[in-house]
Amino acid sequence: MTGYYVPGDSLLHRLPAGAKLLGLAVLCTLLLLFPSPLAPVVAVVLVASLYVVSGVGFTAAWAQIRPIRWFAVALFAMQWAFVDLLGAATSTARVVIAVALAGLVTLTTRTTAMMAFLERCLAPARFVGLDPFRLSLLLSLTVRSVPVVAGLATRVREAQRARGVEWSVRAFAVPLVVSALRHADALGEALSARGLDD
Amino acid sequence: MIEFTDVRVRLGQRDVLFDITLSLPERRVGVIGANGSGKSTLARLINGLALPSSGAVTVLGLDTRRQGAKIRRRVGFLFTDPDAQIVMPTVAEDMAFSLRRKGLPAGEISRRVGEVLVRYGLDEYADHPAHHLSGGQKQLLALCSIMVLEPDILVMDEPTTLLDLRHSRQVAEVLRTLPQQVVVVTHDLALLADFDRVLVLDQGRVVADAEPEAAIGHYRKIME
C-alpha cells in the first residue's frame, strides 16, 4: 500500500473504489479458503493479468513487492522449518499475492476516491460523535507519511555519514524520531491553517 | 484589515512579542528582523495559530481568540517548509483536499483546481506524486492549495527561504499579481522592494514601520 496512484484509463482505473476494495477482500479470502497448492498458481496468473490490464507498468508493479522481499524470504524459511516445502511456498505466495493485489488497488485508485468511499462506509460513526472525514484522513496521512519518513531517514543517515559515523542505532533512531515528531507538529499546524480544526 | 491592540505573547519566562499595536490596511505588508525577533509569531497571530497572552488581534473584524476557525477559513497561511503542508499524495488531490472539506460539489472542485493549476503552471503535474516535485514546485503547490480556497488574506512565513533564485523570482512574481492582502515574513529583502509597508522587529518589538527603503535601511543598521 506504499505505492502511488498511476494515472490511466484502464478498466481497473474506471472501477469504483468500493468495487476494488470488495474485490480485494473477496480474492484474499478465496486465497485462504482454497488449500490446494494450485490456488496460488492460478492467483499469480490472475494478478499478473490484472497488472497487465491496468497498464501501470513493471516498475510500479515491482515497487509493490520489493519492500517485502526479505520478509517473504524469512517467512518462507520459518514456514519450511515447521511444515514441508510445498506448504511453506504456498503460504508465502499467499502473502505476496495479497500484497500485490493491495498494491494494484492503490496504484489504480486516487486517494480522494478511497477517502470518499471510506467516508460513506464510516458515516454511521457520526452517531457516536466521530467525524468520518477525519477518520478517512487518517488513511491519506498514513500513505503520505511513508515517503516523508523515508526522506527523513535518508537525511539522518547522510548527516551521520558526513560526521564519520558509519552505523549507530542510537545516532540514527534519536534524530529520526525527533524529526518525525517535529514533522507531525508542523503537519498538525498546517492542517489547522487549512481549516481542519473547525 | 488586520489589527493588533496592545499585544503581548509570553512563552515561559520570555516575552516573544510585546507592545504591539498596529493597524494593517495596506495590500502588501512585509515583516523583517533578526532570527528570534518574533516575526513568525507575529505572522501566526494573524490566523490564530498563535494566540496573544494579553491584548487582542482582530482580522476582518473577527477576534482570533474566539473566532480562530472562522478566520482560518478566510486567511491562508504559507509555511516555510512546503513538505509539512502537503497532505495528499498527488498535486491535484492536495489542492482539492480543503475544498472537499468545505463540501463543494465534485464538478466545482475540479473546475477550481484546474483553473489554479493552469494559472500557476502546475497543470502538467496534476496527477504527479507531490513528494516527487522540486522544492520550488512544492512551495508553488502549497501556495496553489491555499489560493484554490480564494482567501481574503494571505500570510507567508519565509516563503522563499528554501528556494533557488529562479523559484524565488517566480514566487515574487506571483506575489505581485495576487489580488489579496498579503503579509510576508522574510529575510529576502529584494522581495519587499515594491511593498506598501515594511515592519522591522527586534527583540519582540516593532522598531521601525515605514515604506521599504527606510525600513530596510533601519534593519541594516540594527544588523551591523
From TrEMBL, chain A:
Keywords: Membrane, Transmembrane, Transmembrane helix. The keyword ATP-binding does not apply. It is found in: Membrane. CDD domains: EcfT (cd16914). The chain crosses the membrane at residues 15-34, 41-62, 68-88, 95-118, 133-153. It is a multi-pass membrane protein. Coiled coil: none annotated. InterPro entries: ABC/ECF_trnsptr_transmembrane (IPR003339). This is Energy-coupling factor transporter transmembrane component T family protein.
UniProtKB/TrEMBL annotation, chain B:
The keyword Coiled coil does not apply. Coiled coil: none annotated. InterPro entries: AAA+_ATPase, ABC_transporter-like_ATP-bd, ABC_transporter-like_CS, ABC_transpr_CbiO/EcfA_su, ECF_ABC_transporter_ATP-bd, P-loop_NTPase. The keyword Nucleotide-binding applies. Residues 2-224 form the ABC transporter domain. CDD domains: ABC_cobalt_CbiO_domain1. It comes from the Bacteria. GO terms for molecular function: ATP binding. Pfam families: ABC_tran. Keywords: ATP-binding, Nucleotide-binding, Transport. PROSITE patterns: ABC_TRANSPORTER_1, ABC_TRANSPORTER_2. Belongs to the ABC transporter superfamily. This is Energy-coupling factor ABC transporter ATP-binding protein. It comes from Sphaerisporangium corydalis.
